[in-house]
Amino acid sequence: MICENCKQRPAKVTVTQVHNGEHFERHYCEVCANSLHPFYVEYKHDPLSLHQLLTNWFNHTEQQPMQQVQKKVPLECEACGWSIQRFLDEGKFGCASCYNSFREQLPTVFKRLHNGNVTHVGKAPGAFGEKLAVKKRIEEIRLQMKEAIETEKFEEAALLRDEVRELEDKLAAGGEETHVD
Amino acid sequence: MSIERFLDNSISSWMAGDGEHSDIVMSTRIRLARNLNGYRFPLAFTEDEAHKIDQSVSATLLDANEDLEMNFSSIQIKDLSELSRQVLVEKHLISPKLANSPMTGSALISDDEAVSVMVNEEDHIRIQCLFPGLQIQEAYKQADTIDRVLEKELSYAFDEQFGYLTSCPTNTGTGLRASVMMHLPALTITKQMNRIVTIISRLGMVVRGIYGEGSEALGNVYQVSNQTTLGKTEEDIIADLQSIAEQIIQKEREARNALLKHSANTLEDRLYRSLGTLSYARIMTTEEAAKCLSDVRLGIDMGLIEDVDETILNECMVFMQPGFLQQYAGTTLNTSERDLFRAKLLRERLQKGEKTKTKGENSYDV
C-alpha cells in the first residue's frame, strides 16, 4: 500500500479519525503522517471541555481547597440526587431542581460563561411573563412616584401609590388572576 | 408523510440559495432549548420519563399543525436505520447526539424542512429553524411561534432568576442559540480569519468551522453564533449577531474586491482549476471536494464562472457526505469507494442539462 497523501512512499502509519461517530482510516508514510498529524495524543474528552473549565474556576476562585468548599454547599439535589461534584465533572445539570439546590454556587459559574451576567432578562413563559410584567410595572410606577414627590406633585404621587398597592395585592393573590397589558 | 422524502431529497429549503446576502451567508439557524417540569433532564432520566415526554410533546405539536399552518411529520429515532439517522444528521435536521441516543426520542420535521423539533436530545425540547441566507429575525420569529404553541400546553422549567432551565449551563437563560453559516473564502485566502475569530470571541460570540473538525473549516464555511444566553434579551442577542454578521460580510466583500484587483489572474486560474478538478477527477476526498466547491462558488459569486448555478456549494457540501453517498449508491461504501462515488456524483452534478437520476428508487433532485 502506498501513502494516501504523497502517493509515492509506502504507507506505514494508520491514522484513525472519528467523525459523526464514524471511523475513518487513513494510511500515510512516515513523512506525511508527521506533517499531517504531528501529535499522537488520544483525547478521552474534548481537548478543553466545559467540565474542566468549571472545575478549574472553582479551584481558582475559591481560596480554600475543594473539600472545604464542599462542606458549605448542599451536596446533592433533593429531586434527582445529582451532586455538585457531578455537576462539576460533567458540566451538566441532572434536572431543573438542581438550579434551586445549587443556587448559591451558580452565579460564579454563570458569570464566567455569560460575560458576567447572572440574571435572565429575556422572555418568560405565559404565567411567569404576566407576573414579571406586573413586577416591572410596579418598579416603573415607583420611579414615577419618586419623580412626582420630588416635583411636589403629591396628589399624583398618592394616585400612583394606590396603583402600586393594587398591583401588589394582585401579585399576592396569585399570578394566574393577574392580567396586565 | 413518510420518512423517505426527508432521506431521498438532498435539498432542504435552507439550501435554496435565496435570502439576503446569500452570496456569503449560506443559512441562518435558530435553536431554542426548553425543558418540562417534573421530569429529569435526558442525561439523568429513565426510559419511562423519556417515553412520556416524547408522547406529550409530539402530540402537542401535531395537534397544532393547523394553527401553525405547517405540517409536521413525527419520526421516531429508534425506528430508523443507522444510515437513515446519519443522512438526517448530514442534512442538519437532527443532531448526532439525538441520532445516537439510546432512549426514546423523536424529531418533528416540517414539510419544507425549515423547522425541526427534537425531543429528548440534550434537553427535552430543541426547536430548530433553518432559513436560507441571512434571516435571523425571520428564523427567530418562526421558532418563537412554535415555542408559544408548546408553552400553552406544556409546563416549562423556568426560574425567575435564571430563566429557561437547561441541561447545560451554557444555554441557561434564553436557551437561544442563533447562528449564521458563512462562506468566507476571501478572508481565508487573505489570512484574516484568525484575527476575526479573536475579535469576535471577545464580543460574546463564537466562530468555528462548521464541517471540519476543531478549528479546521472545510470548504471555508464558518459558523458564527452567540455564546451568551443569560443576561441578554432575545432581541439583543439577535441584533448583536446581525450586526457582527453584517460586518463580516462587509470585510469578505472588501477582501474579494482586493483579490480581484491585485491578483485577478492567479485567482481566476485557481478557481477554474477547481472547476476542472470537479468536472473530471475520478477520486475525490471530502477535503479536496470541499476546497474545489468553495473555489467554484467564489467564482460564481464574483462573476468569473458563469455556467454553474450558485446552489452547488450548499447542496454538494451536504450530499457528498458519507451517509448521503451511501444512500445515493444504495449500498454501504468503504472510504476509497466513497471517494470514487463522490467524484462521480460531483461530475454528474456539474454536467448541465443531463439527468442526474440513478436507477431504482434512490434519487436526488437538482
TrEMBL record, chain A:
GO terms for biological process: stress response to cadmium ion; stress response to copper ion. GO terms for molecular function: cadmium ion binding; cobalt ion binding; copper ion binding; zinc ion binding. Residues 131-177 form a coiled coil. Keywords: Coiled coil. Residues 135-170 form the UVR domain. The keyword Cell membrane does not apply. The keyword Coiled coil applies. This is Nucleotide excision repair protein. It comes from Psychrobacillus lasiicapitis. The lineage of its organism: Bacteria, Bacillati, Bacillota, Bacilli, Bacillales.
Automatic annotation (TrEMBL), chain B:
InterPro entries: Arg_Kinase, ATP-guanido_PTrfase, ATP-guanido_PTrfase_cat, Gln_synth/guanido_kin_cat_dom. It is an enzyme of class 2 (transferase). CDD domains: bacterial_phosphagen_kinase (cd07930). It catalyses: L-arginyl-[protein] + ATP = N(omega)-phospho-L-arginyl-[protein] + ADP + H(+). ATP binds at residues 27-31, 92, 126, 177-181, 208-213. GO terms for biological process: phosphocreatine biosynthetic process. GO terms for cellular component: extracellular space. GO terms for molecular function: ATP binding; creatine kinase activity; protein arginine kinase activity. Transmembrane segments: none annotated. A motif (RDXXRA motif of the pArg binding pocket involved in allosteric regulation) lies at residues 338-343. Appears to be allosterically activated by the binding of pArg-containing polypeptides to the pArg-binding pocket localized in the C-terminal domain of McsB. The keyword Aminoacyl-tRNA synthetase does not apply. Keywords: Allosteric enzyme, ATP-binding, Kinase, Nucleotide-binding, Transferase. Gene3D superfamilies: Glutamine synthetase/guanido kinase, catalytic domain. Its EC number is 2.7.14.1. Residues 24-255 form the Phosphagen kinase C-terminal domain. HAMAP family: Prot_Arg_kinase (MF_00602). Belongs to the ATP:guanido phosphotransferase family. Catalyzes the specific phosphorylation of arginine residues in a large number of proteins. Is part of the bacterial stress response system. Protein arginine phosphorylation has a physiologically important role and is involved in the regulation of many critical cellular processes, such as protein homeostasis, motility, competence, and stringent and stress responses, by regulating gene expression and protein activity. This is Protein-arginine kinase. The lineage of its organism: Bacteria, Bacillati, Bacillota, Bacilli, Bacillales. The gene is mcsB.
